[in-house]
Structure prediction request, 769 residues.
Amino acid sequence: MSLTETLDVRPGEDANLILRRATVLDPVAGIDGVHDVVIRDGAIAALAAPGEGTAEGAEIVDAEGMHAFPAFFDPHVHLRTPGHEHKEDVETGTRSAAAGGYCGILAMANTEPPVSTAADVSALREQARAGASIPVGFMATVTRDMKGEELTEMVELREAGAVGFTDDGLPIASARVMLRALQYQRLCGGTIALHEEDPELSGAGVMHEGPVSAALGLAGVPSVSESTMIARDAALAAYENARIHVQHLSAAESVEVVRAAKAAGVKISAEASPHHLCLTDEEVRSLDPHRFKMNPPLRRESDRQALIEALRDGTIECIATDHAPHQAEEKDVPFEQAAMGVTGLETAFAALHTELVLPGTIELSLLVERLAGGAAPFEIERPSLAPGSEANVALCDLAAEWTVGEDGYESRSQNSWCGGKALTGRVMVTIAAGQVAFRLRSFSLGVAA
Amino acid sequence: MKHLLAIEQLSREEIEAILDRAESFAEVGRRDIKKVPTLRGRTVVTLFYESSTRTSSSFELAAKRLSADLVSVKAAGSSVDKGESLKDTVATLSAYDPAAIVIRHPHAGAAQMVAGWTAASVVNAGDGKHEHPSQALLDVYTLRRRLGSLEGTRIWIVGDVLHSRVARSNLIAFQRMGAEVTVCGPPTLIPRGIEELGCEVTHSLERIGEAEVVYALRMQQERMRESFVPSLREYAATFQIDTRKLNPRQLLMHPGPVNRGVELSGEAIDSPQSLITEQVAAGLVVRMAILYELLAGGERPTPISEGEGAGRPTPIGQPA
Prediction:
């Protein structure tokens, strides 16, 4: 299904643009070269030879030296609406995503109250049509009010437009409830996305269990808290031939479990977040909860390396930010008491480009592929630059250097794990569902031809 | 030194400077008038979010012996009970322009955060299960007085290391002073990865004879309910230090309060090789030395000679 069939966005003007002499890279479509990207009526009309693209009335953007990628898709965002609009809402969250080069996001359902009824989904979709800068889809909870006890009315939720189901924020502790959800999925479809941890093993843990937690005297969350739950749910999904998506993989053991399940033919997909791909638990020595407290926690260097390897071999098919906005007063407290989560939409591309691509750890094309890889697990058409596609483009300047937070954030919250970091690579323009969703203030789009 | 937040941040030289200072305060303690004017006119705030007897009382007495004005705030009965955040409480107390804030808090990193919010010097009097630097300093002080030096001394820390900030601070302090440290306890109460701090790990008292110093930790009643140990009875049978396990040359320490008959036998506590009461006495002079180093350490040390300043009022209008 195309983006806007399942996702909602504020209606606007279709883009008519020519991205002159852009370096166009879409590894999945097999496009890699310098072209004039001709966007007419919100669709990619042509990839013309450099300098030769024409379209009547189109704005010309001098994109020489810049890269045009298929815009990114984030299957894991917390828009905090309803209930915590002081942290984020549909408008600020989608603006934040647009600034990060995204053309689509999926909003998690652990709001207050959680998104557990068809009415909740309908209300959110209406908000999105009124104020979302880019297409946004809404997940519904698997269990009623995320209590882990009874299933939500999954058929009705799907009819109301829920993209999939998740109790993200909490695991589904009961194997019986999990099994029933997977059985019931046959009636309604919708990928079930899983926050995997065993609450008994995580206990009161606030960081990865290991030498750093030992040194700091902080209660640890062991890696096996995550991997044992993934193993359980992969076995249940295999048993029911159901479709699951594992959220925010953090541990090497978890990667092994997912890899084995895929090899065995289980319908399982997985995501990793930029912070888990770039940071380790060594950061927690600073005891800075603003940037380094999240769930799952930052783990060891060997775990980070395992995640990168999984990104390469496709065990992890997509990067998801787990964008989790919190206000300062929820973070200006000792580490153990601080809220979990960091924001990530505005920095995902730049951070991964700086930390993984520039040092040569991964190829640029792999990063681009994985940043848009979050659509397919939810049966949404992957953003493409192939002519004829709806225009979903992230125009990036790979040489631009900037300091995160210097000019503020589009998000309503400031708990970016990159806050204060100098990054290289920046999103200049985002076109989502055929509309210009973002342009960097300092970057003028150019003149009408 | 501006703050005392963690032993981790101190060099051996800085530790020794505080211990040397404490030695000179020990001399003051033997006088009839035990007060020196060093901090006259300056304010020390103690802010305790957890119950404490010896740490709070010794910091308070240390401040008074140094002639500081003292404000003691306990979380229970204060605006903390009304939901005031740590940040706001610190802002409120900072309005009195204190020279130092001594804080105990149930969460790791609290003292460090407070240091970022106030102009005062901050002393960590225990932050969660993280650190308890003044305890480590007084323990090193006690041992140094007895042994002269900790260089090459074999020290065993025995018991519930997982839940102990004392274990963490002492492990670091002992090693920094040249001692070799072994931690011993049931596997459930030894944090995973602790050996990366440079200590040896064992789960048996079999080789306890190798230790020159045995440092026992408090074992709390509730640990058995969380299945860390099956029962205090079994814990005591396996890990209790008694006089049969000790030889008379070994020194015995404990941060208090002791559970008699659990981690230590009554006999061991009262034996001549026990340093427990010396530790308490050391607490006062070491905490005086800490306040002195932070608040007056940049200046030339005031000579603490007999009679100088002691009990002599400063005329009104003169700078203190």
Residues 223-240 of chain A form the longest helix (18 residues).
